Amino acid sequence: MTIRTLLTASLATTGLLVAATPALAADDGKGLYLGIGTGFSSLKNDDDEIDNFIESGSEDFDVDDDDNVFKGFVGYEFNPYFATEVFYADLGRTRLEGNNGANTDLESSAYGVSAVGQLPITSWFTAFAKAGIAKWETDVDGNLGNANVDLEDQDGTDPVYGVGAQFNLDPFLIRAEYERYDFDSDYQIDSFTASAGWRF
Question: Which long-range contacts (CB under 8 A, 24 or more apart) does 118-127 make?
Fold first, then answer.
């Protein structure tokens, strides 16, 4: 299954759940929640794709892409099957280590909104999938030793999607999730996080 197909299926499933459960929204909605989390990130791309992303003109570098992720989110659960979330994520730093001793750091962050389709397994355990849109920025610092190349910061608006599981210990919640921030085909960040939150 391609990424585009997965994203389309997630959005379609979410739409069907919303259409099929209007009564539950009034009776069983749990309302507002928020949370913070941390974890680690990993880059999906090879050297050629990273070079295309920052337009460095060089592929002579090693990639150190294992860094900490910090995130915060605020959501509203309309019913047991559907919620929406706004989020902010500091996706950490990717370091390009040039063989000539020069380094370039790529520091990324993103914020946006996601639709969340939920599947309650028990009263205390829920699986979920999400799809949304993220406004992202990548600050590029360094030149890999080539002072004639002016590396520019990058930004854009692209999809984010993921899956996870949540323990409901009302009013507390604990979740683990995987997300992919699809900046473009040349720069895709995977994040793996654990979060704690509170329901109101």
Answer: 118/77, 118/80, 118/81, 118/82, 118/83, 119/81, 120/80, 120/81, 123/168, 124/167, 124/168, 124/169, 125/165, 125/166, 125/167, 125/168, 126/80, 126/165, 126/166, 126/168, 127/163, 127/164, 127/165, 127/166
DSSP string covering 130-193: EEEEEEEEEEEE--TT-TT--PPPEEEEEEEEEEEEEEEETTEEEEEEEEEEEEETTEEEEEEE
The whole-angstrom separation of Cα 110 and Cα 90 is 7
Q: What is the pTM of this model?
A: 0.78
Q: Residue 149 sits in a domain of what CATH number?
A: 2.40.160.20
Q: How far apart are CA 128 and CA 177, in angstroms?
A: 9
* Tens digits of residue pLDDT in 184-199: 777 899 999 999 999 9
Give the residue numbers spanning the domain of 141. Answer: 3-199
Domain count, the chain: 1
